[in-house]
């Protein structure tokens, strides 16, 4: 499971602190050195770690903490709160258009899980009694359209496609029109990905953005790729103004760096986490729950 290494490292640091009736500044410094190493080893961005440790330390060495009956517990609580803040504080909700349909554009590198996440998100919306339309805008990857159609059949959601000979910009535009005419209150546009960030793709995504004016631009990133995921997020955000991130493959043995860095580095909240290949494996991302899970 994700975060295993980080989680056990932090738990061992804190079990030492927890037992202490009195905590000295040196104890705090020692604990923070260990937390710092644990975070770096979990592939958390260097600068993010530095800021995090500085904040926790500043709050931990105050007289109030040192004089409390259970200083170790107070410090753990401070770390918990800062971890939660690091991941965005509270749950970032999906935007909703004033006038339906709400348009969601899915972007990301090939293999990150964009197409499957499109299906999962539609399923999540259906559970809330919405009627999403899926738009097959990835005309380059062989079988991407078919993949979306199969997902659509599985969850009984309509899929709008114009094959692979029409431009994705036109497909997105007509897909939106189709949703308006058919009473779909959400439109989820799947777009093409490449193996690496590339300028031609960015230009196409910008054009799709202009054509459908999305309420959400969700970047799907593979949490297993650690700092690369954060770099990708930074790049996409500079080009497209993302509104949120979806972290996939959190069921794998990711060290967790992406989850802990992406909000701080890009300013973009993580809105969903995907924890498996199954269609119901997508969940709204709860920073406080994730922090508690990491701290055990
Ligand atoms: P796309 O190229 O970004 O559209 O990627 P796909 O949606 O085709 O997904 C690529 C692969 O990742 C597929 O085999 C998915 O089943 C798998 N995948 C996506 N999300 C998750 C996840 O949360 N956990 C796991 N284990 N696999 C995932």
Automatic annotation (TrEMBL):
Enzyme Commission number, as recorded: 3.6.5.4
Location in or out of the cell: Cytoplasm
UniProt keyword terms in alphabetical order: Cytoplasm, GTP-binding, Hydrolase, Nucleotide-binding, Ribonucleoprotein, RNA-binding, Signal recognition particle
Subunit (UniProt): Part of the signal recognition particle protein translocation system, which is composed of SRP and FtsY.
Function: Involved in targeting and insertion of nascent membrane proteins into the cytoplasmic membrane. Binds to the hydrophobic signal sequence of the ribosome-nascent chain (RNC) as it emerges from the ribosomes. The SRP-RNC complex is then targeted to the cytoplasmic membrane where it interacts with the SRP receptor FtsY.
Family note: Belongs to the GTP-binding SRP family. SRP54 subfamily.
Protein name, as recorded: Signal recognition particle protein
Organism, as annotated: Paenibacillus terreus
Biological classification of the source: Bacteria, Bacillati, Bacillota, Bacilli, Bacillales
Parent-record interval covered: 1 to 296 of 458
């Amino acid at each position: 499971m994700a975060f295993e290494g980080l989680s056990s490292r932090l738990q061992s640091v804190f079990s030492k602190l927890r037992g202490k009736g009195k905590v000295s500044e040196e104890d705090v410094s020692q604990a923070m050195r260990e937390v710092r190493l644990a975070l770096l080893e979990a592939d958390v961005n260097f600068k993010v770690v530095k800021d995090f440790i500085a904040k926790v330390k500043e709050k931990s060495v105050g007289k109030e903490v040192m004089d409390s009956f259970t200083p170790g517990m107070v410090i753990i609580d401070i770390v918990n709160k800062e971890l939660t803040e690091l991941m965005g504080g509270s749950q970032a909700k999906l935007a909703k258009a004033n006038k339906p349909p709400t348009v969601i554009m899915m972007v990301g590198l090939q293999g990150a899980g964009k197409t499957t996440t499109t299906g999962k998100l539609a399923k999540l919306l259906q559970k809330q009694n919405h009627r999403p339309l899926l738009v097959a805008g990835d005309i380059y990857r062989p079988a991407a359209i078919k993949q979306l159609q199969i997902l659509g059949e599985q969850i009984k959601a309509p899929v709008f496609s114009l094959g692979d000979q029409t431009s994705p910009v036109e497909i997105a535009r007509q897909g939106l029109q189709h949703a308006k005419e058919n009473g779909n209150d959400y439109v989820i546009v799947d777009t093409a990905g490449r193996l690496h960030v590339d300028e031609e793709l960015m230009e196409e995504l910008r054009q799709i953005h202009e054509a459908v004016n999305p309420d959400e631009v969700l970047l799907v990133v593979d949490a297993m790729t650690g700092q690369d995921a954060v770099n990708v997020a930074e790049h996409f955000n500079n080009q497209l103004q993302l509104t949120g991130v979806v972290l996939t493959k959190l069921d794998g043995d990711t060290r967790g760096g992406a989850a802990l860095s992406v909000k701080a580095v890009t300013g973009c909240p993580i809105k969903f986490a995907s924890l498996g290949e199954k269609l119901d494996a997508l969940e709204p991302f709860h920073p406080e729950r994730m922090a508690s899970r990491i701290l055990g």
